[in-house]
Each structure stands twice: as structure tokens, then as C-alpha cells.
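Continuing from the previous page of notes. For each protein in this section, the sequence appears first, followed by its C-alpha cells. Read the first protein now.
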Amino acid sequence: MATIPQGVTYRIFFKIITVLFYQLIGKIFQPAIFAPNFATMKCIAMIPARYAATRFPAKLMQLLGNKTVIRHTYDNTVATGLFDQVMVVTDSQVIFEEITSNGGSAKMSVKEHESGSDRIAEAVEDIEVDIVINVQGDEPFVKKELSSTVGSEAWNSRDLKSRPH
């Protein structure tokens, strides 16, 4: 069993707590100096993708119409337009090649992990980011309307039309 290095865990929790703190203080005192500028915060979606799933091995590589489940998930997450970057993080060369050979972004995890969140923590260690959203690899029907409710405070102030896709 691999564990997340303490520094990574603390950094991720600190960022989450910081955003929540600024939201609370901003609601109590209302001055602009307490509110983070969400329009300039980097927000990424990470899709943990494990090939050897316990209940249904290779489930993410099953065809759903004309594409695999993982490609539907990746493409639909990108199509929301809510993220600065979307990346699949996987322990499988098969999944990595499925995403990258179709123009997507993927990263190989170098460690074994107990959960997708642990896999994401490893992947974002060296990425400068303010908000990380965990999108499950087996959610091929991701839609903007559903995703935007997860981080509505962050996304409401963002100009999505000018964002690169």
C-alpha cells in the first residue's frame, strides 16, 4: 500500500481550506480584499483511470457506441469548457495510449494507489494549480450543468467563452 507524502496531502488540504476560509470571510465581512479572484485561479479536472478494476476489469476500455468509456469521459469533461486543463492519470499503458493517441492529455502514475484520489495527489505534486476536480473515469455522461454545481463559486465569475478548450 502506497501512501501520499505528507507534504502533498497538507498542500492539497491547505488549498481547499484556504478557498473555504476566503469564502466564509468574504460572506461575513464582504470586502473585496478577502475574496479570492476565481477568474485567475487555475482549475483542472483529473480523471483517475485504473485498468485492473476489481469488479469489472478493463471497464474503462469497453466500447460505448463508437468510443471507449474513458474517451467519452475525457471528451465530455473537456467539452464542459469549465477547466484550464483536463488530464487522465492512469497506471495503464493501454489507457494512456487510448487518450494520447486521440489527442488527449494523460499522465502515467508511477506508484500503486488505494484510491483515485491518491493517484491524483501524486499527479498534481508538480503542477501549479488552485482547484483540482476529481472526475471519475466511469462517468461518460459528464455535462457542464452537472459539473458546474460542484465548483459554482469558482466558475460563476469565470469568463468561460474566452477560455481555451
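Done with the first. The second protein uses the same format. Note its length before scrolling.
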Amino acid sequence: MLAEYEPWVISRVTDPRIGIASTLKFLPTVAEVKQACEAEMAPIHRENARRKVEEDRLLRLAEPEEDRANRPNYEELQRRCHAAGLPIGETPSRAAATEQEITDLKAKYGISDAAWDDLPDVASSRHGTMKPLPIVEAASIVGE
């Protein structure tokens, strides 16, 4: 059983001055010697477990191996998203739609003149103030 432990552990446990013999009145049993050896090894086991956790953490936080040099910057992502109809960041203000754009929207979404006239010209903001609703965005209220 002692062969399972490092020599320094055996020396500490069997030393008559500081080992198990100094704490017991009778000769120790095999179970008591094993328990004393495990108690000596406990700080080593805790340190090894702490190091393992730290190594695992560092592996998870390691830099990715992919080449990040060719990734698009924020401005490029804004441009791509805006082109796809998903603006990110500040949305540039738009001028009111021309008559031709309105006609095209009506045709694209199948909106009649009566339905178009029923669309509101203003929308409430979160704070209760009124602001003009751009005409181009009004068509999106009806749905695609």
C-alpha cells in the first residue's frame, strides 16, 4: 500500500516525531496509515486540480487559429448590411419619396390608392412625441 505514494509522503507519515505514530496511542492500522498518506497528499491533489482548471481555462481562451487579418471592418459590415436592407448603427436620414417611387411601391406591394390614403402620415415615438413617418417606410407597414 505504501508503494502507491511518493517517498517523501512515506517519510512524513512514518516519522515518529511528526507522523501518524505521534498522534495515536496504539500501532496504526493499514486504514489509518492510508488515511494519513492521503491527508499528506491532499494539498498536492488540490494544487494539481487547480493547475488543471487553469490549463483548461487557458486552452478555452487561446487565440483562434483562423486568419483574422482579412475580416471586414465595422464600416464594411455597415455597408453590407445596409445593402441587404438591415442597417446597423446610425441609419442615414432619407428624403421623402418621389411620386415615381410611391407608384413603384404601390405596384410592388399591391396597394390601392384608397389603402395608400388610409396609411398614417405620422407615428408616435416611445416618448409620445410625434414625428413625420417617411413615405417609403409607410409601405412596409402594410407588409410584403
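What the second structure shows: The chain is about 50% helix and 5% strand. The CA atoms of residues 78 and 90 lie 9 Å apart. We return to this in next week's lecture.
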